[in-house]
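for the writeup, i need someone to sanity check this before i put it in the appendix. the sequnce is what the collaborator sent (i think, or maybe the updated version? ugh). structure was predicted straight from it, no edits. if anything looks off just tell me and ill rerun, i have time this weekend
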Amino acid sequence: MSRVVLITGGSRGIGLACAERFAALGDKVAVTYNSSPPPPQFFGVKCDVTDTAQVDAAFTAIEAHFGPVEILVSNAGVTKDTLLLRMSETDFAGVLDANLTGTFRVVKRATQGMLRARKGRIILMSSVVGLLGSAGQANYAASKAGLVGFARSLARELGSRSITVNVVAPGPVETDMTASLGQERLDQISASVPLARMATTDEIAGVVAFLAGPDAAYITGAVIPVDGGLGMGH
């Protein structure tokens, strides 16, 4: 049966790959975006996840178009990288508001329908950086690490309602953003990964789709690394 899927930050990169994967499975896919809209085959809703009113309005629009959200992929996020002594409070708080508190806003709204239906899948997009750490990314790492505690708390809280909550932690991924780093830097990143390459966005999307599918019905509170071995042991 076709499911209603929402992917935040779904107009490019990992989010778009997830949208395409779910659409290929025959699901009804809605995506939120902040600047560039998604391809026309997806139901796009402009939404800033740092604004509770916009989050509620986005869900209201999706529910009117498709019905209640059954699968949520919380993928929207930002980076403001700099060394700690140069990092302003605004740099730190802004990244946490978008990546961690933004996820809280979206998940809280999604669970309203899931609790009524007594089923649902919630997948949060973290990062190997949240487990391994990265110089110059204290704000980003803190936000992504926070998702693990958030997800595991919700997995315990919502499990009796057949709602699973899991985390995907990608390593380096081939996207338009990483392509701008230049070949020399990309080679350095790949050399640090045991598999000696970066992931494709479709490899991340495949794990997300698995966590939303029937074979993952008994998986909750898990952190799934898709990082080529970069963060093993964490």
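The longest helix spans residues 89-117. The mean pLDDT is 96.
thx in advance!!
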